[in-house]
Amino acid sequence: MFVGLFIIVAGAERTLLTPDLFAAIGRLHLDSIPVLSGTMAVLSNLVSNVPAVLLIKPFVASLKDHDTAWLSIAMASTLVGNFTVLGSIANLIVVQRAAASGVVIGFWDYFRVGAPLTIITLAIGTLWLWLWL
């Protein structure tokens, strides 16, 4: 599964990262901690958190404060992996192992707990970084 994700990310980097996309993402103001955290939240739940970090990596070089950007990315990508079962490969592994033991964890069962927990922790993490960095 990991190998497949890395292959897809490498393909996406080669085909999707056009000058137009760089310009569009540059207009997102990723230097803002809340914007970068929100972007990571969306991206991480589209492609999972590890590939999301790999996809955002080329855009960090153009940001003013690399250290703060990487702290924001690390915080957000880690926490938003809890939003849905698909947010992190670790979630998929746990759900699969649970199923093998006879415990079924459905998407919506997970989401009812994961979504509020993620929103709360992401808001706290973003606020903390925003206020103290």
Give the topology, please.
Elements: H1 2-16, H2 19-26, H3 33-47, H4 49-60, H5 66-80, H6 89-100, H7 107-132
Gist of the model:
The protein is about 75% helix and about 0% strand. The protein is mostly helical and about 130 residues long.
Folded structure, characterized:
The chain is an all-alpha fold and 133 residues long. The chain has one domain (2-132). It contains seven helices and no strands. It has helices at residues 2-16, 19-26, 33-47, 49-60, 66-80, 89-100, 107-132. α1 packs parallel to α4 (49-60), α3 crosses α4 and α5 (66-80) packs antiparallel against α7 (107-132). It is globular, with a radius of gyration of 16 Å.
Mean pLDDT: 87
Total strand segments: 0
Poorly predicted regions are none
Oligomer: single chain
Main beta sheet = none
Proportion of residues in helical segments? over 70%
Radius of gyration: 16 Å
Backbone shape: globular
Distance between the termini: 36 Å
